[in-house]
Amino acid sequence: MQEESYAEKCRVLREEVRMMFNKIENEVDQLEFIDVIQRLGVAYHFSNEIRNILDIIYNNQTSKLEKNLHATALKFRLLRQHHYDISTDVFDSFQDELSGFKKDQILDVEGVEGILSMYEASFHSFEDETILDEARDFTSKFLKDFLNQNGDSHLSLQISHALELPLHWRVPRWEASCFINIYEKQQNKNDVLLHFAKLDFNILQSVYQEELKYTSRWWKETEIGEKLRFVRDRFVENFIWNVGMSFNPEFEYFRKVLTKANALITIIDDVYDVYGTLEELELFTEAIERWDLNAIDSLPDYMQICYQTLYNYVNEVEFEMLNKTGYSIAPYLKREWAGLCKVYMTEAKWYHSGYTPSFEEYIENAWISISAPLMLIHAYFVIPNSFKVEDLHLLEENSDMIRYSAMILRLANDLGTLSTLTLFLYFSF
């Protein structure tokens, strides 16, 4: 009953906020409103309204923002974020061709708020957009200096938050939690919007809690955590990772499926990296490639648990998606799991033989072993209304989009787990 009351209150507040879109006519106010809506984590309720406003702003050839750095940078960031084709030429009036950004000009026009907006916009650069690279260097230094001299203001709180991690790099759901606290302290805050954001955040938290209960029961029922003491128990981390990937309530099934997939990846990775002998790993890899439950008899007990759990998981997803779409996705899922185990096997052979691969050999294997292709294929199928049967031939081979996305994840992961010196030494020999 209480949940229904919260849902009704949320619905009423949502419609009040929706009406606000029609009352804001000034372009700068519209941009700032969209920015706040997004950072509070409630933009998913107003996709059409946001798109309509950005369409108008993008097509407005008479915009008078060229002398307002804050508004220009905010406009640039929002349009780039929403995939509009906007050029860095909008910053020409703030740049001197010979000396880079005119420090005095920027400070006279917009002040610190403009610098902060330019800093955030600079992280939306494409290759060879040197104007944004220069802007990032200048604004970062300026904001750090400002923070050292003005540490107690509300603006300093926003600057400190931005310097810790730029908005473009933040996970939207975690940003919502942080920004609600920041926005609450603003003098010009919109109380209705703030109330709605808090209520919506709490409702979604309750949704995630129920999902976590469901997936935790599944994890406990597998008994893997109890029987395989050598594997990492990172189940809650896996769930949080998937909330970060897609927090919208309609992606509940996506989060459940990918949380289980992440848990299984961690388990199998530990089998290959930590526990299995080379002979046992060969048997396991062959069993996954065969995808025959009878193959389980050839495996040691601890591998039988892993194999059975993975086998049941894929069949469970296949059954659910067959009911929803009428199409069998099992062949694609089996292929990805077999491919992952094969590259794990390659890494195990390298380790056991003491072989050091070249960078080319390493990355050709590692972009798959990071498990991004497997996760992306799973996501493609289980996100609502995401796939079309006529497009499935594109999955027969890993596309460049999947390959390069996986490489980015692999290299970022390696940089996060190895020291710079270790990487230098590894790839120098």
From TrEMBL:
State what protein this is by name: (E)-beta-ocimene synthase
- Reactions it catalyzes: (2E)-geranyl diphosphate = (E)-beta-ocimene + diphosphate; (2E)-geranyl diphosphate = tricyclene + diphosphate
Q: Does the keyword Lyase apply?
A: yes
Keywords, comma-separated and alphabetical: Lyase, Magnesium, Metal-binding, Plant defense
What species does this protein belong to?
A: Pisum sativum (Garden pea)
Listed GO biological process terms: defense response; diterpenoid biosynthetic process; response to herbivore; response to wounding
Primary location recorded for the protein, binned into one broad class? plastid
Q: Where is the Terpene synthase N-terminal domain?
A: 3-163
